[in-house]
Specification:
This protein is of the alpha+beta class and 149 residues long. 44% of the residues lie in helices and 12% in strands. The protein is elongated, with a radius of gyration of 17 Å.
Length: 149
């Protein structure tokens, strides 16, 4: 997810004009995050007005879904699968290793099943899937993206 523009109501309106179908609040927040990299605070009243719902409704959706961000994402984002299959082959240790590898330069988040159970433990680094992930594999992936490990 690479933001293409900084927040602006005009750009947000262009994004929201493309949304059709059920569940417009969730879809709107997802689309805004895709566009801006996160859902800025200014988007809550904006979405509420566009879809004629309360700010509380929009905020409730925004805070309910873990994948929706309210702050800009860090440069390094590591997600470690904590599904049962990955836990059984070491994802808890991998999570600790991920924290050691990235230090304060990024964020490590738990996710539940990335659909790669046969190659667990699974992780993603900035959206790139790693099967049979290890500390060295994470560090290597980060080195390939120009990050320090």
């Amino acid at each position: 997810m690479t933001p293409t523009h900084g927040w602006s109501p005009e750009r947000a309106r262009d994004v929201l004009d493309q949304i059709t179908g059920p569940g417009p609040v969730l879809m709107a927040l997802q689309a805004l995050q895709e566009e801006f990299g996160y859902v800025p605070a200014e988007a809550v009243p904006f979405v509420a007005e566009v879809y004629n719902v309360s700010r509380a409704d929009v905020y409730g959706v925004l805070t309910f879904y873990r994948d929706l961000r309210q702050t800009p994402p860090p440069a390094i984002q590591v997600e470690v699968c904590m599904g049962e299959a990955c836990q059984s082959v070491g994802s808890r240790d991998l999570r600790r290793a991920a924290h050691e590898v990235i230090g304060d330069d990024g964020e490590v988040r738990d996710v539940f099943c990335v659909g790669n159970c046969a190659l667990g433990p699974a992780a993603t680094v900035n959206g790139r899937l790693i099967g049979r992930a290890t500390r060295d594999a994470l560090a290597s992936c980060l080195d390939g993206e120009g990050a320090s490990s």
